[in-house]
Amino acid sequence: MAENLKDQTVIGVWWSVLEKYSTQGVAFVITLVMANILSPDEYGLIGMLAIFMSLSQVFIDGGFANALIQKKTRTDTDFSTVFWINISIGLLCYILLFIFAPAIATFFKQDILVPITRIYSINLILNSLCAVNKVKLVIDINFKTQLKISLAAAITSGIAGITCAYLDYGVWAIVVQLNVQSFMTALLSFIFVRWKPAFIFSKDSFKSLFGFGSKLLIAQTISTVYVNLYNIAIGKKYTAAQLGLYTRARQFGEIVSTNLTSVMTRVLFPVLSRVQDDNEQMMSAYRKFIAMVAFIVFPCSLGLCGIARPLVVSLIGEKWSGCVPLLQILTFAYLCDGITIINLNLLYVKGKSDVVLKLEIIKKSIAVAFLLVAIRYGVTAICLSLVLYSFIALIINTRNTKKILNYGFLNQIGDLYPYLLCSLTIMAVAFLSDFVVDNNWISLAVSLILCPLIYIFLCWIFKLEAQKEMASIILSNKYCPDWFGKLIKRLYPSLS
């Protein structure tokens, strides 16, 4: 059973990484092209609508996605019931945003937000159409199909967005890109998944799923409002350009830490849900999993901090250089967020949605208090408040992990600090490279070559278990080259 669980996890993570990062890679290239054409102000306008779109998406899901994944026995009636709920809420959210678009424009003092809101929010209806299909793929740990869907949607929407940007459509290029992506995702999900909803709505199914999902809905609503509250605060207090710099810094940071964590938790949740009644097996898998997250996320986040300046200036130009210090600060917040989310996932697995809700209320109350103080001192102070909050949130979440698996904050820090020290070392190397080398491209190249090599060497010297586990996974892959397999076996003789 344990070996089967490991195989499922490895396969799931592998395809999830491919799905997320091939899509993100395409999206990143598209963003670079469009960011060189468009201005921070235009991205800032879209950032002003983020809370309304994100909150609507949370209501569309309603916690039912996680409820379906967590439920041990699911029927087609369950899926069909959730489908019709999603469609209804998607339509309602669109109608409300259409009606209140003038009020949103007045609040931010941007008249152009009226038509943008009404066109952009169409993707809420499109997203509601494919929500159940996505859940079915997650339940089956079928990220290979998700890869096909996401990649095709990203490429198609990217072509549409870049074309509109070059034709000088301005902010509308971003709107077109986002809506085309949602349309293609919805269309392809029905083509590949081949699931059709029945004309069924079951009250019993609704009550069963809502019992678990309602608390997650409230928790996710609080979390979403909190995340986007920063966009509202910056957009209202400062300029669209400053909001554009802030959202760009977050986007760069999320490409690394948030997306890596998301990739792994998408696999962790359905896999651990299958052994939710066996604490011993769950503890073994969970401890290895959290070490693997640190092994990958820590160096990527802190390495990004080190190369932030040459990376941003080289890829999207000097006009975006204002986002560099913001990005460097935020990487430390994302560092904590990765482990915090993994800990929270354990509560999902155990079905403790009431505890998740309680924690969200406590944590977000603290975060809002920090924001109210920080907003007086500028966007940099706001980013610093995010770092402080992230550390406190980690401590709070690990208290509950200790209650469930007796694996609390100090236990986790004891397992993870070697990865942190190795990651801080490569961050220092990247900063040194930027300081010594004048050319941004050369500095970037030096860091991207040296930092991974130094990190791998340090992990090998200190015999860190996650690197050995990763070596084992690579060695078991049939596509692993012979020369690389021999090198791994020489470094780790026990794997021979």
What is the topological layout?
Elements: H1 2-37, H2 40-48, H3 50-61, H4 64-70, H5 76-108, H6 113-120, H7 122-139, H8 143-166, H9 171-193, H10 203-237, H11 240-273, H12 279-316, H13 324-349, H14 353-374, H15 379-405, H16 409-436, H17 440-461, H18 465-476, H19 482-491
Helix pairs in contact: 1-8, 1-11, 1-12, 2-11, 3-5, 3-7, 3-10, 4-7, 4-10, 5-6, 5-7, 5-10, 7-9, 8-9, 10-14, 11-12, 11-13, 12-13, 12-16, 12-17, 12-18, 13-15, 14-15, 16-17
Give a concise summary.
This protein has 19 helices and no strands. It has 496 residues and is mainly α.
What assembly state would you assign to the polypeptide chains in this entry?
single chain
Helices and strands, in order, run as: HHHHHHHHHHHHHHHHHHH
Broad shape: globular
- Radius of gyration, in angstroms, nearest whole number: 23 Å
Broad structural category: mainly alpha
State the end-to-end distance.
Answer: 23 Å
Q: Work out the strand percent.
A: under 5%
Poorly predicted segments:
none
Total strands: 0
Average pLDDT level: 81
Largest sheet: none
How many DSSP helices? 19
Helix amount, in percent?
over 70%
